[in-house]
């Protein structure tokens, strides 16, 4: 969700770029050796941020409405959302790790300021904003600090809904500190930590579970970047069918056996989900009508991530009573599409707020002052 970690944006003209003159206009030529952002990866991030917002809409708003439509549609939306839980954050962190590979090689002082301090700064600033805004919507079922002690706890040991920012700061620190350690000696403990947390063998108040479970996927993206890029580059229709089938079977087997908290099962299903997600994103990139809008969204995920929860909280306060009070026929008209419509509205309003804040020179809300603005989740 949070940062463009490649060396440059396609529109940027760096010091090593040249200009190619044509008869009609002057066009920038990419500098030699500068990697281009893979559209499939940005498209995957775009899908992930949509799934994040959709899940929050379903759990924190849609399922809180008093629906009396006579069909179990709300429960079906909840069940559908659960099927993407092994996919959305593991895939998001894997892509973040892929984009972080170059940044993690930079000197400690650069990484400490631009990544570690940058993400912690964003986390602290937006935690304060969330705390204030969420206080105005106490009926929204979400983690929030209600005291100074609670706020201090969220700032330090029990991250809030903004835990992705906190996690990236921590993961960058771990990746940088272990850069000379054999990769297996880092990945195996990370996998064990993920399995232990998913099995409920660790105390995981707040969002610590996600923090523990997803280090593996960030490090996998960081360490296995060439293999991931090669897999994406060679993604075929046959691979898409096989990986999607494997994911569906894994979900079904886990559900039938009630194995969500069996040691290693959730982590294994998430690995299958990530492989499917990379394959699907690569195939999606062939459909420019879909992939280009998703890739554009994937490059601006930071404002959506940090703003969408306060927007959702205020919309929930505005809509809960009126929608719950609608008659059966009126609710029947909106019950199916409500989560999709509200997800689109929340994303659109989040981006509008972002543009407004930039217009009033509040860019410091999206980047540590003195560093390049973090335009999208990396």
Key structural traits:
2% strand, mainly alpha, globular, 2 strands, single chain, 378 residues, disordered N terminus, two-stranded antiparallel sheet, 65% helix
Plain-language structure description:
The protein is mostly helical. The protein has one domain (37-365). Helices cover 65% and strands 2% of the residues. It contains 16 helices and two strands. The protein has a two-stranded antiparallel ribbon. A hairpin with a 4-residue loop joins strand 1 (18-21) and strand 2. Helix 1 crosses helix 12 (265-284), helix 1 (39-60) packs across helix 16 (338-359) and helix 3 (85-100) crosses helix 9.
In short:
The chain has helices spanning 39-60, 73-83, 85-100, 108-134, 148-156, 163-177, 183-198, 208-213, 215-223, 225-233, 237-257, 265-284, 288-298, 301-324, 328-334, 338-359, and strands spanning 18-21, 26-29. The chain is mainly alpha-helical and 378 residues long. A two-stranded antiparallel sheet has the order 1-2.
Low-confidence stretches: 1-35
Q: What structural class do you assign from the helix and strand content?
A: mainly alpha
Based on DSSP secondary structure assignment, what is the total number of beta strands?
2
Count of helical regions: 16
Strand content: under 5%
Outline, from the CA principal axes? Answer: globular
* Domains (count): 1
Order of helices and strands: EEHHHHHHHHHHHHHHHH
| Spatial extent as radius of gyration | 21 Å
Overall pLDDT metric: 89
> How many angstroms does the end-to-end distance come to?
6 Å
Major beta sheet summary: 2 strands, antiparallel
**Percent range of helical residues:** 55-70%
Widest sheet: strand order? 1-2
């Amino acid at each position: 969700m949070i940062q463009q970690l490649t060396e440059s944006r396609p529109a940027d003209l760096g010091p090593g770029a040249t200009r190619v003159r044509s008869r009609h206009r002057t066009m920038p030529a990419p500098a030699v050796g500068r990697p281009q952002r893979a559209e499939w990866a940005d498209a995957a991030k775009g899908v992930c941020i949509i799934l994040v917002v959709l899940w929050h809409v379903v759990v924190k708003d849609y399922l809180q409405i008093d629906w009396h439509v006579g069909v179990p549609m709300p429960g079906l939306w909840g069940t559908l959302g659960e099927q993407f839980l092994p996919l959305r954050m593991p895939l998001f962190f894997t892509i973040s790790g892929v984009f972080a590979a170059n940044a993690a090689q930079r000197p400690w002082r650069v990484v400490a300021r631009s990544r570690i301090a940058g993400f912690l700064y964003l986390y602290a600033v937006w935690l304060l904003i969330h705390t204030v805004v969420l206080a105005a919507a106490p009926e929204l079922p979400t983690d929030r600090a209600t005291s100074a002690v609670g706020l201090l706890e969220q700032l330090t040991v029990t991250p809030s809904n903004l835990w992705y920012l906190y996690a990236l700061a921590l993961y960058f620190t771990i990746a940088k500190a272990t850069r000379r350690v054999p990769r297996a000696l880092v990945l195996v403990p990370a996998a064990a930590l993920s399995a232990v947390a998913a099995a409920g063998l660790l105390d995981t108040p707040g969002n610590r579970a996600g923090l523990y479970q997803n280090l593996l996927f960030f490090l996998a993206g960081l360490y296995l970047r060439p293999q991931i890029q090669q897999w994406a580059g060679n993604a075929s229709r046959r691979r898409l069918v096989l990986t999607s089938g494997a994911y569906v079977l894994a979900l079904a087997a886990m559900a039938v056996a009630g194995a969500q908290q069996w040691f290693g099962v959730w982590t294994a299903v998430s690995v299958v989900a990530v492989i499917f997600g990379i394959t699907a994103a690569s195939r999606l990139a062939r459909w420019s009508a879909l992939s280009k809008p998703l890739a554009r969204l994937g490059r601006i995920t930071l404002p959506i991530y940090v703003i969408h929860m306060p927007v959702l909280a205020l919309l929930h306060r505005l809509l809960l009573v009126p929608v719950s009070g609608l008659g059966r026929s009126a609710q029947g008209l909106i019950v199916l599409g409500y989560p999709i419509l509200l997800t689109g509205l929340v994303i659109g309003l989040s981006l509008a707020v972002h543009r407004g804040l930039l217009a009033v020179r509040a860019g410091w809300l999206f980047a540590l002052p003195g560093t390049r603005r973090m335009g999208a989740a990396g």
